[in-house]
Design goal:
By secondary structure, the chain is α/β, with parallel strands linked by helices. It has 15 helices and 14 strands. Strands 1, 2, 3, 4, 5, 6, 7, 8, 11, 12, 13 and 14 form a twelve-stranded mixed beta sheet that branches. A two-stranded antiparallel sheet has the order 9-10.
């Protein structure tokens, strides 16, 4: 069973929930709306034999924090989110890396490559086209099928009030087959995991801010790059649903590859079977395509190995007040750091567990070797404490005296000022996944 190391990384702007495992060239996997890093639960396992895999919740999503926004929505621009990716890479001691993104994450991935070409070695953008291209060629089909783009970008508080009024409607629309992926792709635990952030008003506002940024400042950044003739120079892989709108709406323009060719020099890609969420429908096929792409696009330098032991821990089910299953996690604390970097994880005993408990649910059933290790954080003066197995629900996790536990839902989560203490932790991956056969049903990409 492969253990995913969990970190909460302070980027200087936001607290980021991160999971990491494996060894070799580093690959970030970024999720989209309305998901969290949990969407990569099966794909990640398929990459661990060859790569150091980093999963993270984008700011405003999942268990990551919701920093205060601004009038121009810059704190939720793809440029700001790309800065988060670099901050996590810095913390892990990784100089160069690839970025794979689905939906919103795909746009963060290409922005990272544009803004930081010296760091990003390859990009994979799944079921998306560039932000400016999407708006420039928008029509009535776009307005009706891509409803989050226009609805969630409306001025506050209209979309926030609508979304918080019935967040279940979003989950039912996205995962009930309307976006092209069969409903049975998502079991009840996964659906509950994706619903939980939408129950928190601060996350709903953050997500709306991200869509407002996509309708404004993200477009400005894309236009500025085009005016300056700045392009993505590393290899870029574009994959899209063969039955969805990305593959059909832009056929008169040369298709998705032609649109990506306007912003990138080295573009490859093709349509795949399945709906918008094809990484969850066909994780084995998705992992295979990513491995092939990474093996032919150049390899990054692996980071330094961890010097402590990965401890595999269990999880236990916890019932939310709504009756939906979730999970809590127990951890072994392995060290403390100061400055920007890894932040303390909260006490996740059932009585204090936040809504983001589900983020401990990760895959292990397809079994990469536990010998894989992850790069160590760069932060200096790390004090390591002894590690030992801790069963789920145990409150006696080893912890250094310099660290303190804080609630993820504390008011300080929206603060942009650094905090004084930090820790690294370990916990187990637990499988909630099944391999799915690919589907050719129509998709409505978001």
């Amino acid at each position: 069973m492969e253990a995913f190391r969990e970190l909460t990384v302070w980027s200087g702007e936001a607290e980021l929930s991160v999971r990491t495992a494996g060894a070799g060239p580093t690959t970030f996997l970024l999720h989209g709306f309305p998901q969290t890093h949990l969407m990569w639960r099966d794909v990640a396992v398929g990459l661990l034999a060859d790569f150091h895999v980093v999963l993270m919740d984008l700011r405003g999503y999942g268990a990551s924090s919701c920093p205060a926004s601004s009038a121009d929505h810059e704190p939720y621009s793809k440029r700001a989110m790309a800065r988060d990716v670099l901050a996590v890479a810095d913390e892990l001691g990784v100089e160069r890396f690839a970025v794979v993104g689905h939906d919103r994450g795909g746009r963060v991935a290409y922005r990272a490559a544009l803004d930081h070409p010296e760091r990003v070695t390859a990009v994979a953008a799944l079921d998306v086209v560039p932000v400016e291209a999407a708006w420039e060629h928008a029509d009535d089909r776009f307005a009706l099928a891509f409803w989050p783009w226009s609805l969630l970008a409306q001025e506050a508080p209209l979309p926030e009030r609508l979304l918080t009024g019935c967040p279940e409607a979003v989950v039912e629309d996205a995962f009930g087959g309307q976006w092209g992926t069969p409903p049975d792709t998502f079991d009840p635990a996964v659906r509950a995991a994706y619903l939980e952030p939408l129950l928190a008003p601060e996350h709903v506002h953050a997500i709306c801010e991200e869509y407002r940024a996509a309708a404004s400042i993200d477009r400005e950044h894309d236009r500025a790059d085009r005016a300056d003739r700045r392009r993505i120079t590393c290899p870029l892989l574009a994959l899209w649903s063969g039955a969805g709108p990305v593959g059909s709406w832009y056929s008169d323009l040369g298709g998705p590859l032609a649109l990506w060719g306007h912003v990138a020099d080295r573009v490859t890609g093709h349509a795949v079977d399945g709906g918008h969420f094809f990484p969850e429908e066909d994780p084995v096929g998705t992992a295979r395509r990513l491995r092939t792409f990474r093996s032919t696009s150049g390899r990054t330098r692996p980071g330094r190995p961890w010097h402590d032991t990965v401890t595999t821990l269990g999880t236990e089910a916890v019932e939310r007040s709504s009756g939906c299953p979730s999970t809590t996690r127990s951890r072994t604390t392995t060290g403390a750091e100061t400055g920007r970097g890894v932040r303390p994880l909260p006490d996740l005993t059932p009585e204090r567990a936040p809504r983001a408990r589900h983020l401990s649910v990760l895959v292990s059933s397809q079994g990469a070797s536990p010998a894989h290790r992850c790069p160590t954080p760069r932060s200096t003066a790390v004090r390591r404490s002894s590690t030992s197995p801790v069963s789920a629900g145990t409150s006696g996790a080893t912890r250094t005296s310099r660290c303190r536990s804080t609630s993820r839902r504390s008011p300080a989560r929206s603060s942009t000022s650094p905090r004084p203490h930090s820790t690294t932790t370990t916990d187990a991956a637990r499988s909630v996944s099944r391999s799915r056969s690919s589907s050719s049903r129509a998709s409505a990409s978001r």
